[in-house]
Amino acid sequence: MLETMTLTDSTIHDEKTYLVQTYARPDFVLVRGAGMTLYDADNRPYEDWVAGIAVNALGYGPTGIDKVLLEQLASGIVHTSNLYYTVPQTRLAKLLVDSSFADRVFFTNSGTEANEGAIKFARRLAHHSGVADKHEIVAFSHAFHGRTMGSLTMTPKEKYQLPFKPLLPGVQVGEFNDSASARALIHERTAAVFVEPIQGEGGIHIASDAFLRTLRDLCDRHGALLVFDEVQCGMGRTGKLWAHEHTGITPDILTTAKPLAAGLPIGAILVTERVAAAIQPGDHGSTFAGGPIITAVAAAVLERIQQPAFLAHVADTGAYLMERLAEINSPLIKEVRGRGLMVGLEMTMDVAPLVKAGYAHGLLLVNAGTHVIRLVPPLIATRADVDTLVARLTTMLEAHHA
C-alpha cells in the first residue's frame, strides 16, 4: 500500500507511526525553500512569516552560508567535543563578546539549554559569594523560557507545567511590567531575575524601560543577576542586534539561540567577567555544544546580521509592517504591537482558524497564545513581502467576518 502513496501521504503516515506526537502539523510536507518562500511536495508555495519560529533569519538558501558549511565539512572535523580547542568556536565567542556587553561566552545546543545554564551560573555565583540560602529565581507572568525542567518552572503556564510537577523549587513569579510586584519578590535570597525584553510566546509584549530599570536597580541592590532572555527577540529581530539596546539597560547574563546559526541548533550564554569568574571546570558542560560546523556558520550569520545596513533594513521593514497592518480595516483586529520584525496582531477571536486558513492562501503563520498572530519572518523580508501579506490577510479577515 505504501508504494502507491504520494510523498505527502507516506511522510504523514510515517510521522504518525514513528514520531512521538507532540506537534499537530498541517497536512502538507515541506521539501524546499528559497528566500522568503517554502514549497511543499506538490510544489505549492508558502510565504513564510514564521521563519521556523524566529530562527531562519536569513531566509532559505542564504548566499554564502552553504560555502562556509562545506568548507568546514571539507576539513574533516565535524565534532571534537569540548575537550579540545577549535578555531570556529573561539572565533564565534570573540565575535559575540565584541558585539555585546559580555566578557565571556558558554555555548549550548538550544535556547532552553541556555536558560538552564544561566540558572546554574546564577546559583553558582550565589554559592561562590557565601551568602546563605541565596538561590531563588524570579520570573514573570506570560514568560516563555523553554520546556526543560528548570526553564519550564520559569514558564508560568499551567498547560505546560501541570503534567510535570513538582518543578524546580525556589522560583517566584511576578507580574510582567509591574515594578511593585518585582519589589515584593526580589530580595537578599534572590540569585537571579529572568525577563524577556520582548515576550514572544507570551503575546509580543514589550518590557517597559521603567520596568527593566527597576529590575536592574533591584538586582544591584540585592546582589542578584539580571538575565535577559533574548532567545527569540535578539540577534537583529528588533532592528538592533540585541533587543535590550533599545533601553540602554544592560544585563549580567544574556541568553540567545534561535537565529544564531541559520537553522542549525545552537545557543549561547553571554556573561560578564564577574559571573564567569565563579564558574570552575566541571561546573557545567556539553558534549555537542559549540561544535565546529555550527559555530563556523553562526559566525558568518552574526557578521551579516550585525551590519548597520542590515539592521536598518529590519527596522524600516518592521515599521512598514506595523503601519500596513494598522491600515487593515477589520473589526477582528484589536491591536498591532511589536518592534522591528517581531510583531503581534491581537485579534478579538481565537487565531487558530486564521493560521489554518493561511495555508490555503499561501501563508505560514503562527500564534502567540490564543488571540495573537505572531509575525517573526526572515529578517530579509521586504516591503513587497509585507504588501503580499497584508493583501492576503485582508482577504482572510473579510471572509471570517462575513
Q: In this structure, how is the largest beta sheet organized?
A: 7 strands, mixed
Termini separation: 43 Å
Q: Provide the spatial order of strands within the biggest beta sheet.
A: 4-12-11-10-7-5-6
Specify the helix fraction band.
25-40%
Q: Radius of gyration over alpha carbons?
A: 22 Å
The CATH superfamily of the largest domain is known as Type I PLP-dependent aspartate aminotransferase-like (Major domain)
Domain count? 2
Low-confidence stretches: none
Named CATH architecture of the largest domain:
3-Layer(aba) Sandwich
CATH class of the largest domain: Alpha Beta
How many extended strands? 17
Structural class: alpha/beta
CATH topology term of the largest domain? Aspartate Aminotransferase, domain 2
Strand content: 15-25%
User: Judging from the principal axes of the Cα atoms, what is the shape?
Assistant: globular
SS field, number of helical segments: 14
Q: What number is the mean pLDDT? A: 96
